[in-house]
Amino acid sequence: MLEIRDLHASVADKPILKGLNLTVNPGEVHAIMGPNGSGKSTLANVLSGRDNYEITGGEALFEGNSLAEMEPEERAQAGLFLAFQYPVEIPGVSNMEFLKAALESVRGAQGKEEWDSVTLLRQARAACKQVNLDASFLKRGVNEGFSGGEKKRNEIMQMMLMEPKLALLDETDSGLDIDALQVVAKGVNSLRSPERGIVLVTHYQRLLDYIVPDFVHVLYNGQIIKSGGKELALELEQKGYGWLTGEEESA
Amino acid sequence: MSQAELDKLIRSNYEAGFTTQVDTETLPPGLSEDVIRFLSAKKGEPEWMLEWRLDSYRKWQEMPSPSWAHLKHPPIDFNEVSYYSKPKSLDDAPKSLDEVDPELLATYEKLGIPLHEQEMLAGVAVDVVFDSSSVFTTFKEKLAEAGVIFCSISEAIKEHPELVKKYLGSVVPQGDNFYAALNSAVFSDGSFVYIPKGVRCPMELSTYFRINEANTGQFERTLIIADEGSYVSYLEGCTAPQRDENQLHAAVVELVALPGAEIKYSTVQNWYPGDENGKGGIYNFVTKRGVAHDNSKISWTQVETGSAITWKYPSVILRGDNSIGEFYSVALTRHMQQADTGTKMIHLGKNTKSTIISKGISASRSQNAYRGLVRISPRADNARNFTQCDSLLLGDQCGAHTFPYIESKNPTATIEHEATTSKVSDDQMFLCRQRGIDPEKAVSMIVNGFCKEVFKELPMEFAVEAGKLLEVSLEGAVG
């Protein structure tokens, strides 16, 4: 479903991705790991279409369509979801209002049945429960005054409702304590399905104790320099990235 | 988001910009004592009213036009304005809606204000003012049962002279300021409300102002008296056709809240704002003020999206002990619009309390200023004020300004002031778009969220309308 071939991308004219290749099939969970500054978050932002992240070469196809030609909202409507590393606050816009607008657009575009307010509320409450968020969060402004952990759980809650075809999680584990990490992992695991692809971008192996990936890739200097199974993550945990990059770095 | 995208987003059509073809009797432009005599005679006013007008006119002639506001406009030639325009069909006041000119009814229909009572929002009585005249007031009889008087000010001058004489100019004196003096001299029509002692007005009252005729000024005068222990919620709405010339609107609104009374006054102002190059639009110079007696409360809520120029400071004089004044405002400016708006809270009584929440949204090349005065007099022990002014900028060519004035002459006063300025951030837009929400909807959602604290103060039906109005104002395709 995701086919990335020789992808080059720049941020503010600075080349970050330099010939990246990656294929994600439905049902697979991929972990992208790598040292700071290797281009992990850039990859997530390029795929979801953030301003100033420009594809300069190669291609990224989502279900055969070039992502470069799609607006960010069109990518979302096609079923691509990004769980943000730093979810932003939107004061005064309630989570519920936000979800309603998002789901109307995405479900509509995918020809899914429209949820009336009662169904939406029921679904949203159930999703909140799964990630240990009190239902009162639905009435609060989007991320407004949420703690770091609450913001991340809110992202996963949205993801569960949006039912994406491809979920990108950008450092979702950063800043989470072990309890919150388990909650988030539980949420992500509940979404694993033969139709859905999941890409976890992470710096640390510990997330992968809870969400066990099918494939692990090491991203360095804008390229994937090594791919393997879940055991690669454990190896990285022990040895750091230095043995692959030729640099001294402690993970 | 780039400036070009934003510009596109906020370029939109003014939906109320059409003109109605009706035969009118319109005075040629110009202002003199003769014009005032003519106008007063035309309205069949008593002698005392004419004298009051002439007195105001003489005061006005000696006053300079104010220049302190953060506004730029060419000098206004008051002799180029026509001070009276009335649809001929209203010469004999219509007794029922069947007698109202269908063109006029259609106009209001088109504006979303059906006048047939059975089609109206349940529980809202409307007085509609077209150019210089009141067209019709609905639900009059039902209100009369409760003892509520709701009619045009012209009618009140004839039918209830004792109330008008007692209260007209009691809150905003004739010579209060340049535009108030002008209004006092030439005011054409407007609404009059009297709520008797202890009566809770059974429905929302509302006045809808429409400027139609070219080169005509609208000078309406509204007077609301809430007698002891009574309650009323009142809403005013305004629109005007799209024209290349600027048109003048100089209104005066006076509120009197007698002991224990409560007045809630809401405005949704959508005068024509001019085009994106600043051509045309209404010059809106308005004086709105209320006097709050012991234990009474006056609350102003305004949503200002129109006018080329807005000069408006709905104020409360907290005369009585334990009285409360509130001001909730959303002012949206775009294109070349200029708004200088805010409030004055004058604390005279003990234990008086005021709250000011102002939300300014500036887009394109517009200028949006909050100007507010909080004055605590020496005898206003334990007075409290809370002020919050937030500005939201869309793009980088607009301006937001805050001019708070605080004068405290009593050491027991508590005054809090908070101010913020923010932008609709790229991150917020991206979060919305990543969730499948198109940029147009995203901006309007973010802006509506920013205004939420004010919208929740509006009567429910109008909160919805105000939200939609912001949407319309920000509407436009995004490339």
TrEMBL record, chain A:
Q: Name one Pfam family in it.
A: ABC_tran
In Gene Ontology terms, what is one molecular function of this protein? ATP hydrolysis activity
Query: Any idea where the ABC transporter domain is?
Result: 2-246
Q: Which UniProt keywords apply?
A: ATP-binding, Nucleotide-binding
Residues of the signal peptide = none
Q: Give the UniProt family note.
A: Belongs to the ABC transporter superfamily. Ycf16 family.
PANTHER family, per the entry: ABC TRANSPORTER I FAMILY MEMBER 6, CHLOROPLASTIC
- Name listed for the protein in its UniProt record: Fe-S cluster assembly ATPase SufC
Q: Which organism is it from?
A: Alcanivorax profundi
Gene that encodes the chain: sufC
TrEMBL record, chain B:
Gene (UniProt) = sufB
User: Can you tell me which family this protein belongs to?
Assistant: Belongs to the iron-sulfur cluster assembly SufBD family.
Q: Where is the SUF system FeS cluster assembly SufBD N-terminal domain?
A: 140-201
> What's the domain of life for this entry?
Bacteria
Tell me, what is an example of a GO biological process annotation in this record?
A: iron-sulfur cluster assembly
**Start and end residues of each SUF system FeS cluster assembly SufBD core domain:** 209-450
What is the protein's given name? Fe-S cluster assembly protein SufB
The record, for PANTHER family, names:
FES CLUSTER ASSEMBLY PROTEIN SUF (PTHR30508), UPF0051 PROTEIN ABCI8, CHLOROPLASTIC-RELATED (PTHR30508:SF1)
One Pfam family cited in the UniProt record for this chain: SufBD_N
Classification lineage: Bacteria, Pseudomonadati, Pseudomonadota, Gammaproteobacteria, Oceanospirillales
InterPro entries according to UniProt: Fe-S_cluster_assembly_SufBD (IPR055346), SUF_FeS_clus_asmbl_SufB (IPR010231), SUF_FeS_clus_asmbl_SufBD_core (IPR000825), SUF_FeS_clus_asmbl_SufBD_sf (IPR037284), SufBD_N (IPR045595)
